[in-house]
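Box 3.1 A note on notation
Throughout this textbook, protein chains are presented in two layers. The first layer is the amino acid sequence; the second is a C-alpha cell string describing backbone geometry. Keep the layers aligned when reading.
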Amino acid sequence: MREYKEEITLNEKDSLLDLLTIEKNLLKIYAFALTEGVSNGFREVMLDNLSEEISDQFSVFALLTELDYLRVCAENKEKVQEIKEKVMVL
C-alpha cells in the first residue's frame, strides 16, 4: 500500500497551510457562536476568543508569506470592479 498513512509526512508548507485552514474555520465558529449567543457573559468570552483567533490567524498568514509559501498580489482594477458590481446586485 503505497499511500499508507504511516508513509505520508507533511512538510512545513503543508503543515502551515493546514494550520491556516484550521484558524480560518475557528474564526467562523467563534463568529457564529457570537451572533447566536444571548448571554452577555457568553458573548464576551466569544468576543475575546474571536479577537485572539484573529491575531493567531494573521500570525500564521504572515509566517506563510514571510517564508514565501503564499504570495499576495494586487488584483487588476477591472476584476475588482466586476466583483464589486456582482456583490452590489446581491
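The mean pLDDT is 88. The longest helix spans residues 40-66.
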